[in-house]
Design brief:
The protein contains three helices and five strands, in the order H-E-E-E-H-H-E-E. Helices cover about 50% and strands about 15% of the residues. The protein is globular, with a radius of gyration of 15 Å. It is of the alpha+beta class. The strands form two sheets. The chain has a three-stranded antiparallel sheet with strand order 3-4-5. A two-stranded antiparallel ribbon has the order 1-2.
């Protein structure tokens, strides 16, 4: 069972590297919606997903324990965090819900 979990983590991190992240103004954010061929169908930036995903990807890479993979994931995770801190954080330190193009959803939801 542990081997299956380990292989699952490797596959997920590979999908992240090839399909889920997108370049956004020289930074990385998650793509959120895809068709069956993994074509991105959204321009939404979800700051909560990005900050949580950065943490989860880094944790998964550390569990796998491969140094080069961990280095690559850490670099991508820090880029996800940078976008959230630079664009998605309000002056009180809270995080905006999301942005789609020039439209902001400034709601704030508590993630538990």
């Amino acid at each position: 069972m542990l081997l299956v979990f380990f292989l699952f983590l490797v596959v997920i991190l590979g999908v992240f590297g090839s399909e889920i992240k997108k370049e956004y103004r020289q930074a990385i954010t998650f793509n959120l919606f895809f068709d069956m061929d993994w074509t991105n169908r959204s321009t939404i930036v979800s700051y909560g997903h990005d900050i949580e995903g950065a943490w989860l990807l880094h944790e998964a890479a550390q569990v796998i324990g491969e140094k080069e993979l961990t280095r690559k994931i850490q670099k991508a995770a820090l880029c996800l965090v940078d976008v959230t801190l630079n664009e998605g954080t309000d002056i009180d330190g809270s995080i905006f819900y999301e942005r789609g193009g020039e439209l902001w959803d400034s709601d704030k939801h508590w993630l538990v």
